[in-house]
Specification:
Chain lengths: 501, 127
């Protein structure tokens, strides 16, 4: 526990006040010079009914107050730049800094979406190039770079299926989704107006073909399949499933969130997939989270390409590039074209890796997951014997007699300086610990994680209370998650108002 | 643990038959599996359902789960208290934690369900 990044910032910062509490009346961060523009009454510029009126409770702070506040709370956090972040299904991997270098080139960063196309030809060419590369990697016909996130790419894909059915004058009701799917799949299906029929996985952790036969009908619009699925298992009958769907005039949606497990090795287009989304922030190393920005390009086979969202970049015969909306597009999902800075990073990554490099990404992602599988098998219960690709799912069954659960193991890992894995997902594994190391971790980091996981299993036997009460070393100890959900406090109140409430 | 006079479904609901009304809740096993319940969504009174239709949602700190009515019929009453105090589902799943009362339309749905002994055997396989 000594050479891990400390999750224990200096004691004095433990109770870092909120910005509202730091506020002092009249304190300012920036001194503005006198305005050179003639002043006009506010009422002339913005009608009173459109103005917020009272701004009294905004915090008043100096620049140094703000910088220190955010730096201090950032030091209470954990990040991929500090260590292994084995959050299964999320692909938390290193973001190469060359991406950050390139994205800041003035020609790529000092642009505006309202600029005329002829003044941003280089940027359009970059998008055109990225689409070509993604077409090559996926084996699909066209790719729209428009969606801003994986889930938005998913929604786009499902709406494209609906659009294609409408174009045929059909109104089918159901999408088939396996019980090992990402939770966003059924959510996207419902948002697009479909009902979900769940496919129960077999004991290998894959889709049962007989289930598909049983649920198949003229009312089925398609199936949404994650490859590899959330158990980290490859759906080895995907081609048969695609054939069954196509025979009935239905479509195959592939959730490409786990594309890093086979990028450069296999192409969804050759598996019979009609529509696929990819998360550039997973497979292609653009930064994750904090609510964005992300990008979830959606790729289509010839069956669905006319329905792609947003605009695609076309190259005219004279070599110029233009944005064009597909003929029967589902329309826009966001303002403007796409999350351009993320696209730039992804292309930079792809070109810096090269084709062979990307194939090695898949190899190393699978190797690392299987290294952890082998090292932890026995200490923790392996959910399925089926070979793992990029992630491995264990359960807490081996600890059942100690009273220590998956949640306790996850909390205790923080004391060892690791981010916990994904827990209690997929739902079909009781007490799931879903571990995805990604390809960017070296052997030393994996070994340190294995040592921590084994130490926790030992502690569960020798001093279970230590694990059940974890974490002990973090800025905040174990939170009351049930109370937080039952009685959420969604805003801050000044001390005196709180008392008056 | 599991009341003898109740019937049980494979989705871990219990049914207590009270004349022409069936009271439905989730079992002790189900509440333990879910963990602390933080939110319950119930159907509207007067809604009609087929047997095994999804009728509501139970959200815990671990997961969101649907619950199903093991019997077809009309919802005649819902447990409003549980919406306010979802923890009751953890504290007393077989009594005060009931979810819906259904005027069931067919005796045959009841025949599909397990008795307490069969259910206890069934959950041994689930663990």
């Amino acid at each position: 526990m000594t050479d891990r990044p400390s999750t224990t910032p200096e004691i004095a910062w433990r109770n870092e006040p909120l910005l509202f509490e730091r506020s002092r009346p009249g304190r300012v961060g920036v001194m503005l010079p006198p305005s050179g523009v003639e002043e006009r009454p506010l009422d002339e510029l913005i009608p009173a009914e459109l103005r917020r009126g009272d701004l009294e409770e905004l915090p008043e702070l100096s620049e140094v107050d703000v910088i220190r506040h955010f730096t201090r709370i950032s030091r209470k956090n954990y990040a991929i730049d500090l260590g292994l972040y084995p959050l299964g299904s999320c692909t938390m991997k290193h973001n190469p800094r060359i991406n950050e270098e390139v994205v800041r080139y003035p020609g790529l960063s000092q642009i505006h979406p309202y600029q005329p196309e002829e003044t941003v030809q280089g940027c359009l060419e970059l998008m055109w190039h990225l689409e070509r590369v993604l077409v090559e990697l996926t084996g699909m016909q066209r790719v729209s770079l428009h969606p801003s996130a994986g889930a938005q790419g998913e929604l786009a894909g499902v709406l494209m299926i609906r659009k294609a059915l409408e174009a045929r004058g059909e109104n089918r009701r159901y999408l088939l989704i396996p019980d090992s799917a990402h939770g966003t799949n059924p959510a996207s299906a419902y948002m697009a107006g479909f009902q979900v029929k769940e496919l129960v996985s077999n004991d290998r952790g894959t889709i049962d073909l007989e289930e598909v036969v049983r649920e198949m009908s003229d009312e089925v619009a398609g199936a949404m399949i994650t490859v590899p699925n959330t158990l980290g298992v490859f759906e080895d009958q995907i081609v048969e499933i695609a054939d069954m769907l196509h025979e009935k005039g239905a479509f195959l949606y592939c959730d490409g969130a786990n594309f890093n497990a086979y990028v450069g090795k296999a192409r969804p287009g050759q598996m019979g997939v009609d529509v696929l989304h990819m998360n550039l922030h997973k497979t292609f190393t653009t930064p994750h989270g904090g609510g964005g920005p992300g990008a979830g390009p959606v790729a289509a086979s010839h069956r669905l390409a006319d329905h792609l969202p947003g605009s695609l970049v076309e190259r005219a015969e004279d070599g110029t590039f233009r944005l064009r909306t597909p003929s029967d597009s589902i329309g826009r999902l966001r303002s403007f074209s796409s999350q351009f800075g993320i696209l730039t990073r992804a292309l930079c990554y792809i070109l810096s890796m090269g084709g062979r490099g990307l194939a090695q990404v898949a190899e190393n992602a699978v190797l690392n997951a299987n290294y952890l599988r082998k090292a932890l098998e026995g200490t923790y219960h392996l959910a399925h014997e089926t070979p793992s690709l990029h992630e491995v799912v264990f359960s807490d069954r081996t600890l059942a007699d100690t009273g220590v659960t998956t949640l306790d193991v996850a909390k205790r890992l923080m004391d060892y300086g690791f981010h916990p894995p994904t827990i209690y997902f997929p739902l079909i594994v009781h007490g799931a610990l879903m571990i995805e190391p990604t390809e960017t971790e070296g052997k030393e980091e994996l070994d340190a994680f294995v040592a921590a996981m084994k130490a926790i299993a030992r502690e569960a036997r020798e001093s279970p209370e230590l694990v059940r009460e974890a974490p002990h070393e973090t800025p905040v100890r174990r939170c009351d998650e049930a109370r937080a959900a039952r009685q959420p406090v969604l805003r801050w109140w000044p001390a005196e108002e709180e008392a008056a409430e | 643990m599991y009341p003898e006079e109740y019937l049980y479904s494979r989705e871990h609901e219990w049914v207590k038959v009270d004349g022409e009304i069936a009271v439905v809740g989730i079992t002790e096993f189900a509440q333990t599996e879910l963990g602390e319940v933080v939110f319950v969504e119930l159907p509207d009174v007067g809604q009609l359902f087929d047997a095994n239709d999804e009728v509501g949602t139970i959200e815990s700190v671990k997961a969101v789960a649907e619950f199903y009515t093991p019997v077809a019929g009309e919802i005649v009453e819902i447990n409003e208290i549980i919406v306010e105090s979802p923890e009751m589902l953890n504290d007393d799943p077989h009594q005060d934690g009931w979810l819906i009362r259904v005027r069931y339309s067919s005796e045959s749905d009841l025949a599909e369900l397990m008795d307490a002994a069969a259910y206890e055997k069934f959950i041994e396989g689930e663990e």
